[in-house]
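Pipeline run #58 for the internal structure catalog. This entry was flagged by the ingest filter as a single-chain record with no existing model, so it goes straight to prediction. Upstream metadata was stripped on purpose; only the residue string is passed forward. Reviewer on rotation: M.T. Logging verbosity set to normal.
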Amino acid sequence: MPMTARSRGGSRGPVAPGERAADAVQRWIADGTGQQISDLAPLGVLEHLYRHEGATGHEIVFAFTARFVTPEIYEADALALTLAGRPDEAKWVSLAKARAGRLMLWPEGLADLLPG
C-alpha cells in the first residue's frame, strides 16, 4: 500500500547537487520522519509540468519502492513527519482508490508505475 505525504507549501525533497536520487530519498525519509528505509528500487522517472501562483513549473520525479526498517510503522494509520520545518503527517492510502480516481496520486502517471 503506498504512503502519501501532503505538502503544505514545502519541499518534498529535492536532489542536492552531486547527490543521487536514491540517496536523496533515503535522506529525505530519515530527515523528515526519523525512520530508515531499505530495499530501495527504482520504479521510473516522471516529468511533471504544472502551474503554481501563475508561474509554470517543471519537475523531474524519480519514483522508488522501499521498505521501512521498522515493521511496526505499517500498523499505524499515519506517520508523523516534518515538511519545510513544520509538523505534518503521511497516511497509508489504498492504491485501488487512487487508480479509481477517488484519491489524487501525484504526479500523474505514478499509479501506473506502482506494483500491485
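catalog note: The helical segments are 21-33, 95-99, 110-113.
catalog note: The beta strands are 3-5, 37-52, 55-68, 78-83, 86-92.
status: ready for reviewer M.T.
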